[in-house]
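lol so apparently i was supposed to do this last week
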Amino acid sequence: MSDGFMWFEGIPFPVVDYTPEHLRAVRESFVFKDEDVLTVSFPKSGTNWLIEMLCLIYSKGDPTWVQSVPIWERSPWLENTHGYNTLKDKDGPRLITSHLPIHLFPKSVFKSKTKVIYLIRNPRDILVSGYFFWIISNFVKKPESLEQYFEWFIQGNVAFGSWFDHTRGWMSMREKENFLIVSYEELKQDTRSTVQKICRFLGKKLEPEELNSLLKYSSFQVMKENKMSNYTLLRGWLLDGESGSLMRKGICGDWKNYFTVAQAEAFDKIFQEKMADLPQELFPWE
Ligand code: A3P
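anyway here it is w/ adenosine-3'-5'-diphosphate bound
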């Protein structure tokens, strides 16, 4: 019987659209192409924001695509069956999204020139964002309290496993030239420059008015109103019928409104223990 997760090789996955057979098939047989662009993140890092920006880079700021096609069709999720089926028959440069930890990833990506963007965010904010999202969702185990979710997160018993392992695993790619790390924090602090950095990595150039349009249509307020991007199309099925939305607050540092002093100290200690050997400039939050 399901405990609210679909477990695969010790990692909890959502129960809808994920199966062990499928995850095995993805790892063994999905073939990346050099022209693909892959977004990888731990859930609640701001993935959909980055996808929206990538779509607007590829449409040169024209909002037609982001306003007419659901976000999960524009940059499908490799690891769920719907996304995989959409991707495998797609021609041309594909935008692909994944939350998979690196050890479950198709090996073909490491042999290809696929451009990989790894999006990171302060795990404290990821924790808070995840808590508020999963309690309005119907496809992963629901926590009863933030206190309980805090424990699950530390133990890696949340969707897609341990943030610490996920981040360490993908960060090992950081010296490769087809790998770019982008943080939610830098996107918030200077969206324009960060989009320009992403464009340089992708070999794309936007005219000033195209960039302005991208910034407008990927802003929190506009995405919040865009039913193709805010997940309200999933209301009544995967998300709560009344309040289900991806767009919560869209800010940095919200964890300070929720963590107790003891939780903040415990998190600092665990972060130090698990991440101290990585260059700390990789983590641009205080
Ligand atoms: P909060 O819950 O902290 O508000 P993901 O897409 O990986 O599931 O991440 C969701 C988080 O990204 C949510 O964070 C959501 O509000 C935030 N987000 C989505 N679009 C955004 C935007 N345009 N600007 C800033 N934050 C955004």
